[in-house]
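thought: user wants a sequence for this fold. calling inverse folding tool.
action: design(structure=
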């Protein structure tokens, strides 16, 4: 899959949310970003880096801690009760035999989409487009590189036998996959191959 937004490559996740929030003058996000940039001496363009992506995740974590703390008690109170306020009863006979549905959410890693088509009261097609699918996507119809690929342009390896720079860049996206790094030379000959496990967290 190579998902695109109006045909253009998009990066999703904390960096995207913090940049958009800053540019759109979000009363929640912009003050946190400004404070972080002042203390770190970073400029907005500096967030388009491996360290910037990790910094954006830290800024967002602080926002979540400060703003969600007050709502947690309400959430806990809500899930204490197992009644019609926390779930919906479905009766199979009442479900439509033909339907389409979609759910699109912002989750920690980025945009998550679930799409379903029902025919003859059965699931005919189900698709999930997860944040890592957005960021790790390969070139699309317009040949635009995915976010992972774009983040690696210009990286220089201090030691091709230990491509830590590549791992750091890809891990800054918090990928929900096992990373495999192949180091090849200009002729396509593989010089090294590494597998690195990545913890998948919701």
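)
observation: tool returned 202 residues.
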């Amino acid at each position: 899959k190579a998902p695109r937004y109006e045909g253009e490559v998009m990066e999703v996740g904390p960096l995207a949310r913090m940049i958009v929030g800053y540019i759109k003058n979000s009363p929640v996000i912009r003050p946190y970003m400004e404070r972080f940039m002042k203390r770190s001496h970073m400029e907005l363009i500096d967030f388009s880096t491996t360290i910037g992506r990790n910094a954006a995740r830290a800024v967002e974590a602080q926002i979540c801690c400060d703003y969600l703390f007050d709502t947690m008690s309400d959430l806990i109170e809500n899930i204490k009760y197992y009644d019609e306020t926390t779930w919906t009863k479905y009766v199979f006979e009442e479900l439509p035999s033909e339907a389409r549905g979609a759910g699109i959410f912002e989750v920690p890693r980025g945009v998550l989409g679930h799409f379903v088509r029902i025919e003859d009261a059965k699931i005919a097609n189900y698709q999930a487009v997860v944040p890592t699918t957005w960021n790790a996507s390969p070139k699309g119809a317009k040949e635009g590189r995915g976010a992972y690929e774009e983040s690696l342009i210009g990286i220089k390896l201090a030691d091709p036998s230990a491509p830590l720079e590549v791992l750091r860049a890809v891990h800054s996206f918090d990928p929900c996959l096992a990373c495999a790094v192949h180091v090849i030379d200009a002729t396509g000959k593989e010089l090294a191959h590494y597998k690195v496990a990545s913890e998948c967290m919701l």
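thought: summarizing for user.
answer: Here is the designed sequence. Strands lie at 99-107, 110-119, 122-129, 179-184, 190-196.
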